C-alpha cells in the first residue's frame, strides 16, 4: 500500500462509519424520534440521552442519526443522479463537439444562468416539499455543473495521444468514451462530486430551514438547526450538534474525494494536444474499394496533398507526395520538422487533425483479403475496421500514447478484442506472448503494471505490443525512438528489425528525422523537405550518392565521431505560408542558380529506382 492509498484510510473509515450509522438507524437501539417528554424539554446530556433532549423532550442523538439519514440520502442521491446525467452530457458534448455539444452541454448551461437557491425554491414550489421533490430539484440544479466539468476534462483527454492511439487501434467511439476517456476524467469528476454533496447538504438544510425541504416530523439536520435557532438561549447545544454533524460530514466527504483524486490520477493527467478524431479526412469522400489490385505494392501513395483549412483559402502543407511500400519492406520517411513527414503518416491512418484535409492524390492499400482500398477516401467507420487489424501505428511518446489508468495487459487486450472474439484464457495467453515477443522483461508480472511503473524503453515496447497485437499488414512508426536514450534506441530499432523478420509480408513506414536511424533500419528512403518529396531511392544508394543538395546536406550534418566534420544546414525550413518561388530549398542551397527560382523543379530519374527534385542533380555529390 503506497502513501496515497494510506491517506485514504482515515476519511474512508469516517465516511463508512457515518454512512453505516445513518443507514442502520432502523436497527440501532435508538430512542423513538417522535416520542416526546414535555417535562424534560431542553434537558442536557444524560446517561439515557447522551446528547440531551430537544424542545419537545425528544432524544437528540436519535434525531441526529435519523436526520443524517434524510440529509445524506437527499445529498448523495441528487449528487449521484446529477453525476450520471451531467457526465453523459459532458462526455458526449466534449467528445463529439458540434451540434451534439450545443444540444448537451450548452443546453444544460441555461440552468446556470439562474441563481441556485432561487431555482431550488422554484422547483420545490412547483413540485411541493418533501424528499423526492428535493432530490429532483437538486439533480436539475447540479447536472450542468457536472456537464461543464466533464466537458472540459473530455476536451483535454480526447486530444491526448493515447486517445488518438485507441482510434488508431480501431476502437469504437463509445468504447473509447467508456474505457479511456471516462476513467481519465474521474479525478475532476470526484472533486465535483464532493463539492456537490457538500453544497446539496447545505441547500437541503437551507430549504428544510425555510420549511420547503424535509417535511416534519421526519427529522433532518436542516430542520434541527431551524428548531434550535428558536431555543438558542435555553439550550445552545441543540444548535451545535446538527451544525457539527453537517460541517463534519461535508469536511470528510471533501477529504475523501480529494484523496481519491490522488489515488486515481497516478500520473497527474492534465494538459492536452491538438488531435481530434475525424469523421473523414478528405473534403469529398466516398469510400472507395478498388476490386482488382493494380499494383504488387502493399501501399502505393500517389500525389498525396494535404491542406490546412476546409473552405476557401487552403494552405498546402504536403504536396504531391508519392512512394510505395512493398510487402516485407521498410520505408523510411526522413526530414526536418515541418517537412510534412508526420502528417503523411497520420493521413495514411486517418488521424489527421480536423483542421487538415487531403485534397489530392490517392493511397492504394492492399488488404489481407487481396482487395485494394484508397486510404484517402475512407470515412471514419471504414478506417476503424482497418486500424489495428490492417494498418497500425506506433507513436513517438509512449508515455502519452498509453492510457495511464489501464494496466499494460488490459491495453493490449483491448487492442485484440477490438477486432476479434476471444475467450479470457486465450486472451491472457496472447497478451503474455505479445509482451514476450516485444522483449518486455518478466511479462507475467508486467502485464499487471501501469504505464508509469515502466521505464521509457519498456513503455515503448508495450506500445509496440499494442500496435502489432492484431498482426497488421502495415505498421507506421512515427519517430518511435526520438524520446529514448541511444542505448534504448538501439534496442528498439533491433526490436523493429526482429518484428519485420518474424512477420511475413508486413510493411513498415518509419518516420524519423535521424539519418543514422534510417541507415540502421530502412530498405528505401523518402526524403521530404517543406512538404515535398525531394529524393527517393534505396538507402545504401542514396547514402552513397545523394542526388539532391538537401539529402547531401543532411548526410553531411550527421556527426561521425569527429565533431569538426559536422556541417549544419544554414537557414530553416520555410513555413507553408512563406514558400520561396521555384525550388523550395533554393534559399539554403549551395548549388542554387537563377533557374532554380524561376520554376518549381519536377521529379527527375537519375536511375530506374531513384528520384530527385533537383535540376542540378548531376552536379550533386
Ligand atoms: S533545384 Fe536548384 S535550388 Fe533546388 S536543390 Fe536543385 S540546385 Fe538547389
**CATH superfamily annotation of the largest domain:** P-loop containing nucleotide triphosphate hydrolases
Count of the separate structural domains? 2
Q: What gross morphology would you assign? A: elongated
The CATH architecture of the largest domain is 3-Layer(aba) Sandwich
CATH top level class name of the largest domain: Alpha Beta
For the report, how would you describe the main beta sheet? 7 strands, mixed
Identify low-pLDDT runs.
Answer: 266-280
> How many individual β-strands?
12
Average pLDDT metric: 83
- What is the percentage of strand-forming residues? 5-15%
Description:
The protein has 621 residues and is an alpha/beta fold. The protein folds into two domains: 3-28 and 61-264, MetI-like (MetI-like fold); 289-390 and 472-619, Rossmann fold (3-Layer(aba) Sandwich), CATH 3.40.50. It has 22 helices and twelve strands. The strands form two sheets. Strands 7-8-9-4-10-11-12 form a seven-stranded mixed beta sheet, with helices on both faces. A hairpin with a 2-residue loop joins strand 10 and strand 11. Helix 1 packs across helix 2 (60-96) and helix 6 (161-168) runs antiparallel to helix 7 (173-184). The longest helix has 37 residues, at 60-96. The protein is elongated. It starts with a helix and ends in a 9-residue tail after the last strand. 46% of the residues are buried. The chain binds iron/sulfur cluster (SF4). The site of iron/sulfur cluster (SF4) has 13 residues, from loops.
Amino acid at each position: 500500500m503506497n502513501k496515497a492509498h494510506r491517506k485514504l484510510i482515515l476519511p474512508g473509515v469516517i465516511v463508512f462509519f457515518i454512512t453505516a450509522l445513518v443507514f442502520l438507524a432502523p436497527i440501532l437501539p435508538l430512542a423513538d424520534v417522535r416520542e416526546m417528554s414535555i417535562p424534560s424539554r431542553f434537558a442536557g446530556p444524560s446517561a439515557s440521552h447522551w446528547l440531551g433532549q430537544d424542545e419537545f423532550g425528544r432524544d437528540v442523538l436519535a434525531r441526529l442519526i435519523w436526520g443524517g439519514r434524510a440529509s445524506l440520502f437527499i445529498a448523495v442521491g441528487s449528487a449521484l443522479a446529477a453525476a450520471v446525467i451531467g457526465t453523459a452530457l459532458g462526455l458526449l458534448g466534449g467528445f463529439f463537439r458540434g451540434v451534439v455539444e450545443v444540444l448537451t452541454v450548452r443546453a444544460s448551461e441555461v440552468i446556470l444562468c439562474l441563481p441556485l437557491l432561487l431555482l431550488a425554491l422554484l422547483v420545490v414550489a412547483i413540485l411541493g416539499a418533501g424528499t423526492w421533490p428535493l432530490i429532483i430539484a437538486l439533480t436539475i440544479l447540479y447536472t450542468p455543473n457536472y456537464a461543464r466539468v466533464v466537458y472540459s476534462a473530455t476536451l483535454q483527454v480526447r486530444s491526448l495521444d493515447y486517445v488518438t492511439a485507441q482510434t488508431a487501434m480501431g476502437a469504437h467511439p463509445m468504447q473509447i468514451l467508456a474505457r479511456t476517456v471516462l476513467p481519465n476524467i474521474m479525478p475532476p469528476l470526484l472533486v465535483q462530486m464532493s463539492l456537490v454533496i457538500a453544497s446539496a447538504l447545505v441547500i437541503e438544510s437551507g430549504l428544510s430551514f425555510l420549511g420547503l425541504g424535509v417535511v416534519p416530523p421526519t427529522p433532518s439536520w436542516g430542520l434541527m438547526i431551524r428548531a434550535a435557532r428558536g431555543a438558542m438561549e435555553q439550550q445552545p447545544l441543540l444548535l451545535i450538534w446538527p451544525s457539527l454533524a453537517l460541517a463534519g460530514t461535508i469536511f470528510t466527504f471533501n477529504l475523501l474525494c480529494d484523496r481519491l483524486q490522488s489515488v486515481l490520477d497516478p500520473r497527474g493527467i492534465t494538459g492536452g494536444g491538438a488531435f481530434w478524431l475525424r469523421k473523414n479526412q478528405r473534403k469529398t469522400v466516398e469510400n472507395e474499394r478498388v476490386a482488382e489490385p493494380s499494383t504488387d505494392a502493399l501501399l502505393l501513395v500517389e500525389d498525396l496533398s494535404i491542406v490546412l483549412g476546409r473552405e476557401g483559402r487552403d494552405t498546402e502543407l504536403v504536396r504531391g507526395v508519392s512512394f510505395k511500400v512493398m510487402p516485407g519492406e521498410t520505408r523510411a520517411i526522413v526530414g526536418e520538422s515541418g517537412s510534412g513527414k508526420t502528417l503523411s503518416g497520420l493521413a495514411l491512418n486517418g488521424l489527421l487533425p480536423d483542421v487538415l484535409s487531403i485534397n489530392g492524390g490517392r493511397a492504394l492499400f492492399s488488404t489481407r483479403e487481396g482487395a485494394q482500398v484508397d486510404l484517402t477516401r475512407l470515412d471514419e467507420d471504414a478506417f476503424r475496421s482497418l486500424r489495428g487489424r490492417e494498418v497500425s501505428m506506433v507513436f513517438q511518446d509512449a508515455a502519452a500514447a498509453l492510457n495511464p489508468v489501464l494496466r499494460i495487459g488490459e491495453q493490449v487486450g483491448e487492442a485484440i478484442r477490438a477486432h476479434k472474439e476471444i475467450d479470457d484464457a486465450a486472451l491472457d495467453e496472447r497478451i503474455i506472448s505479445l509482451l514476450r515477443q516485444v522483449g518486455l522483461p518478466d511479462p507475467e508480472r508486467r502485464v499487471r503494471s501501469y504505464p508509469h511503473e515502466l521505464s521509457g524503453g519498456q513503455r515503448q515496447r508495450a506500445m509496440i505490443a499494442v500496435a502489432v497485437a492484431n498482426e497488421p499488414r502495415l505498421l507506421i512508426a512515427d519517430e518511435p525512438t526520438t524520446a529514448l536514450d541511444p542505448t534504448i534506441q538501439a534496442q528498439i530499432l533491433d526490436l523493429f528489425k526482429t518484428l519485420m523478420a518474424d512477420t511475413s509480408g508486413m510493411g513498415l513506414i518509419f518516420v524519423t528525422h535521424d539519418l543514422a536511424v534510417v541507415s540502421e533500419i530502412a530498405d528505401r528512403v523518402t526524403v521530404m523537405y517543406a512538404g515535398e518529396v525531394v529524393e527517393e531511392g534505396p538507402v545504401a544508394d542514396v547514402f552513397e550518392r545523394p542526388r539532391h543538395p538537401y539529402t547531401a546536406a543532411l548526410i553531411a550534418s550527421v556527426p561521425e565521431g569527429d565533431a569538426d566534420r559536422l556541417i549544419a544546414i544554414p537557414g530553416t525550413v520555410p513555413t507553408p505560408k512563406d514558400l520561396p518561388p521555384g525550388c523550395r530549398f533554393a534559399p539554403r542551397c549551395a548549388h542554387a542558380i537563377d533557374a532554380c527560382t524561376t520554376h518549381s523543379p519536377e521529379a527527375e530519374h537519375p536511375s530506374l529506382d531513384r528520384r530527385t527534385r533537383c535540376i542540378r542533380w548531376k552536379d550533386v555529390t
